[in-house]
Amino acid sequence: MANWWLISWTTYGTWLPGDKRGYCTRRGAIYVPPPKRYAKPGEPTYRASEHTIVNTLSKSASGDPVYLSAEQMNVALDAIVAENGAVLRLPKLPSPIMLSQGSDLRFLAELRRRGIPHQRGQCVVDAGADVAPQVVEIIRSLGLPLAITFNVNRLMVLPHGVSKASGLQEALWREALHMVAEGVATPGKYQPFICSSNSMPTPSGSCASRNGLKSVFVGSCFAVIRVSV
Known about the structure:
By secondary structure, the protein is an alpha+beta fold. Helix content is about 25%, strand content about 20%. It has six helices and twelve strands.
């Protein structure tokens, strides 16, 4: 049976109190307003300029920040699932893999025409949750197969069926194939897990176990999923 952990972390000294991205104190001992994207309506928002003294003191009390090299990242990670499951990055490949179609150009053009602030990735389009009615109207008027996912006070627009789960499934399946090709495991090792909740469908309709996979980094919230058996 596989054991799963969801771990979020930063390396030493890379996210100190007073950071421009915001911060929180241990057990919420001191109230720090949340960044604008996470604030509730009417709630004060974080301003880094008001926390410069805290940040200066934090830097003086800590050593040099630690950054992982590309080699160290490859040791820690087997795959990066980004853009809410639409893009997969594997250490052995020079370019990311798009798991869905790219951002629809007609959709982007209509957003610009209406003056709706937004950001685009390779596949995902991000905007404020307050423009959801307008975004829905655009999707319907153009007849696009797009879905909206909300994240606090933001929304993401992606093709139907794309999610962190679908991206993770693709990463696990590719790693299983790699392990078999490298002789680390045999197809028979995966058969006991056919179509269980801890498995991935294969092109032939059977399933491959997630056993033996080391870790997968799931984007947007900097999470690592580790597996041990």
